[in-house]
Design a protein that fits this description.
The chain has 106 residues and is α+β, with helices and mostly antiparallel strands. The protein has one domain. The protein is built from three helices and four strands, in the order αββααββ. The protein is rod-shaped and about 90 Å long.
């Protein structure tokens, strides 16, 4: 009987060692990849800035100057940089890892 109990303990220890070895030898899952894409919105902040600039064009002379500046400046509000994997905003094109989904950006 003692031999039988010893065999069960050894088998359990061996299976535990085998599981630990398998976990060590298994490569880590590959990180998802993506890229930085430019996403545009039609009715975003840029649209409203340009609309205000268009309205100011008719108030000559200071309104015209301010209107032109707002129309040009509103162009920057139309788009934002986003991760192609999770669609969350990123700071710039030089970023290498998405802060939200940890995807490697190319």
């Amino acid at each position: 009987m003692d031999n039988l109990e010893d065999d069960r303990v050894c088998t359990a220890e061996e299976s535990m060692e085998a599981r630990e070895k398998a976990q060590r030898d298994t490569p880590a899952p590959a990180a998802p990849t993506g890229r930085v894409v430019k996403k545009s919105k039609f009715f975003g902040v840029g649209f409203w800035i340009q609309l205000a600039g268009l309205a100011l064009l008719f108030l000559f002379p200071l309104g015209t100057i301010a209107g032109i500046i707002l129309i040009i400046g509103g162009q920057f509000g139309y788009s934002s940089l986003r991760c192609s994997n999770c669609q969350n905003p990123v700071d710039n094109r030089q970023i290498k890892v998405c802060p939200s989904c940890r995807a490697i950006l190319q």
